[in-house]
Amino acid sequence: MTDTPTDTTPTQTEEYSWQSSGGCERCDSMQGRLYPEEPGRPHPHCNCTRDLVGYGPEFDCELGNLIQLEHAGSNHPAGQLPDPDDTLELVYDYRITCNDGFVYEGQVMVEMTYAELADLDSLDAAYEEAFDMVESIADDSCRPCEQGPVA
Fold first, then answer.
1. DSSP 133
2. DSSP secondary structure string, 60-105?
3. Cα angle 54, 100, 108; round to 5
4. For the chain, what percent of residues have pLDDT higher than 90?
5. Burial class, 124, CB count within 10 angstroms (exposed 0-12 / middle 13-18 / buried 19+)
6. What is the pTM of this model?
7. Angle at alpha carbon of residue 43, lines to 40 and 49, rounded to 5°
8. What are the backbone angles phi and psi of residue 53, rounded to the nearest 5°?
9. Which among 137, 134, 116 has a CA at the least distance from the CA of 125?
């Protein structure tokens, strides 16, 4: 009888992450869930996406989590002339690609007054606040890199 070598190399794992397009409670409840196979659409005319995500040895912990942040508008009601002290929310879309390949997407909102909109430093501060919020989401959502074997 001959011994057959056993391959102990970890394999790449792939799953599908549900990304709701918003507007439907059923789809929103599936946001961020992972499925071993591509899930079907829960209703006709569903515009949600199913992102293929992977994790395993190909991902490098040295790279850390990738955060993409983009200003997506505000919740200013159309046709209204605001008072400088009125507040609005700046909306930012984010995408987090964790170091293990999982992807999270969503929106964060930063509140500011209309008077602050005229100040570029305030806009920079709003972006930094949004980035800090997304960084916190990444810290809570992304798995930490596994420590190597203890020598």
1. H
2. -GGG--EEEEEEEEE-PPTT----TT-EEEEEEEEEEE-TTS-EEE
3. 100
4. 15
5. exposed
6. 0.57
7. 50
8. -125, 150
9. 116
Q: Give me the residue label for tokens 């918003």.
A: 22
Question: Distance between CA 62 and CA 34 in Å, rounded?
Answer: 25
Under a CB-based contact definition with an 8 Å cutoff, are residues 127 and 109 in contact? no
**Backbone phi and psi for residue 106, each to the nearest 5 degrees, phi listed first:** 175, -160
Distance CA 66, CA 135 (A): 10
pLDDT of residue 48: 81
Query: Would you say how long the chain is, in residues?
Result: 151
pLDDT digits 0-9 by tens, 25-70: 888 888 878 788 888 888 887 878 777 766 544 555 666 788 889 9
Query: What does the alpha-carbon distance between residue 26 and residue 21 come to, in Å, rounded to a whole number?
Result: 11
Structure token pair of residue 32:
């961020």
The answer to whether residue 22 scores a pLDDT higher than 60 is: yes
Backbone angles phi, psi at 33, to 5 degrees: -70, 150
Does position 111 have pLDDT exceeding 90, yes or no? yes
